[in-house]
Amino acid sequence: MSESDNVLEVKNLNAWFGNFHAVKNVSNNYSRKSITAIIGPSGCGKSTYLRCLNRIHEEVPGARLSGEALLLGQNIFAPNVDPVELRRHIGMVFQKPNPFPALSIFDNVVIGLKLQGEKRKDVLMEAAQKCLKKAALWDEVKEKLQKQGTSLSGGQQQRLCIARALAVNPPVLLMDEPTSALDPIASAKIEELMQTLKEEYTVIVVTHNMQQAARVADFTSFLMLGELIEHGPSEVIFTNPKKTKTEDYITGRFG
Amino acid sequence: MNYKWRKLRNKFFIISLSLAAAICLTPLILVTSFILQKGASSLDLNFFTQLPAPVGDVGGGMMHAILGTIYMVALGSLIAVPLGIIGGIYLSEFGKGGISKSLRIATDVMTGIPSIIIGIFAYILLVVPFKTFSALSGAFALSLIILPVVIRSSEEILKLVPNHIREAGLALGLPRWKVILFIIVRGNLSALFTGVMLAVARASGETAPLLFTAFGNMYLSSSPMEPMASLPVQIYTYAISPFEDWQRQSWAGAFVLIMLVIGVNLGARAILNPSAIKEFFKRS
Asked: What distance in Å separates residue B160's CA from the closest CA in chain A?
């Protein structure tokens, strides 16, 4: 496969909560080693859309979805696909830093592998070191791997959560407003980190922060009322959008 | 003027709240200090190492009752705690349907049942058919005291875990049962344990369910199918007896019972979470 191949192709994705139609017929492609930002006003369905892509959406009572999403050519919504297995290929980072309670920093990172049955200490240690380095946290925690994950600062916790998601080695990483609970300095670190993650992973990030989208994302999607209004390279979306709705939103005329 | 008034009001509320807290603490302090005073002075080593002396003789101890209480509370906990935690997990993690509604109502009702009635229930179920008072029936009665408290406390504790923690576990590609068991439950063991300890402490002091199940005994017994002494029943028997020495020992028994509950609580916390013990002493 060439570098520009699509890792994830979403076709006609619809999502509902009960009778509420939250995501309407969204289609989009995500290419290997790119960052795509999803922006849009609150309640436009961007988080729901993201949560469909690792099928966490279905865990909410009354939620359902339709459509197709091809991960490396395979439809992840197909009836024979086990969502548990799928989620090992599509990782997720949440809005609030959420290290697991009462687990050490080390255990937080490797818990995915551990609970999947990996018992060899050296393999776990190697994975922890690799992922913490990738998450730009290693230098800050290497002396205290046995301390509780919750003892870290908010920004460190979020990077710990990124390391945790990377440990199961998913080619695609979903991030749901990963910096909205962090201060500007911690946010900048996460943004910097996203740039390095791009070298290996396909990142899809939901953000409320348009500057952030413009800074980090190669592509930007604009969602409104559950519909994908416009998608394109970030520089086009933010300087020369084709749709007036997009322009109104990014220039701050509503939203 | 306005600021002064606000400060005054603030002071008034702080003082009245402190007063209310003090009033709440007064009976607790009075009871504990009274028992400490009366009990500690009647306590000696024999109390822990000897069986009751024959009526009329001075001395003897309550070793059999201390061990009996530990025996039956442990056995009762063994029955009720795993069941209760499983029930609590069910209510918190899957508790949406009709079954959980009825389970919740049932546990609430069970918490409110007078303990003497639980004793009668155990009597009919385990004493009548075997035609003997037994430690087993006592432990069973205690387990019925422990069960609903553990169910509800476990449920409330696990419900406090924010949902995005569960989602983070699922997002790692872990099946739900592993997320619940190894992340949610394991992450909150010490809180769950506190709930369990509250229930166990309550059961340790119950007299009524043991009166006609374990009944009581003046000898050391280790068979679950024989009557067994327990501290609360022994305290009761001795306290209403006409012998001064027995009444004195009753105080000692009350003292030991309180110490037992506190000791088990602190000891188990220390094993589970050493820092909690430091916190406990820092707070007090």
From this structure: 12
B162 — contact with chain A (CB < 8 Å)?
yes
pLDDT band at A190 (very low <50, low <70, confident <90, very high): very high
CATH of the structural domain A1-86+203-255, one choice from 3.40.50.300, 3.40.50.920, 2.40.10.480, 3.40.630.30:
3.40.50.300
pLDDT attached to residue B276: 57
Q: Which domains does chain B carry?
A: 62-283 (1.10.3720.10)
Residue B13 burial (C-beta neighbours within 10 Å; 0-12, 13-18, 19+): exposed
Q: Model confidence at B273, in pLDDT bands (50, 70, 90)?
A: low
DSSP string spanning B5-39?
Answer: HHHHHHHHHHHHHHHHHHHHHHHHHHHHHHHHHHH
Q: Mean pLDDT over all residues of chain A?
A: 92
**Stretch B62-66: mean pLDDT:** 92
Query: B175 contacts in A (CB within 8 Å)?
Result: 84
Q: Does B100 touch chain A (CB under 8 A)?
A: no
Of residues B173, B183, B190, nearest to A100 (C-beta):
B183
pLDDT band at B88 (very low <50, low <70, confident <90, very high): very high
Q: What is the DSSP string of chain A?
A: --TT-EEEEEEEEEEEETTEEEEEEEEEEEETT-EEEEE-STTSSHHHHHHHHTT-GGGSTTEEEEEEEEETTEETTSTT--HHHHTTTEEEE-SS--PPTT-BHHHHHHHHHHHTT---HHHHHHHHHHHHHHTT-HHHHTT-TTSBGGGS-HHHHHHHHHHHHHHT--SEEEEESTTTTS-HHHHHHHHHHHHHHTTT-EEEEE-S-HHHHHHH-SEEEEEETTEEEEEEEHHHHHHS-SSHHHHHHHTTS--
The pLDDT, as a whole number, for residue A174 is 96
Q: B117 falls in which pLDDT band (50, 70, 90)? A: very high
Residue A3 clears pLDDT 60, i.e. is over it:
no
CA distance A233 to chain B (A): 28
Of A58, B181, A60, the residue nearest A69 (C-alpha): A58
A-chain CB neighbours of B173 within 8 Å are 84-89, 112, 116, 168
Contact list in B for residue A91 (CB cut-off 8 A) is 171-172
ipTM above 0.85, yes or no: yes
The rounded distance, in Å, linking the Cα atoms of A82 and B171 is 13
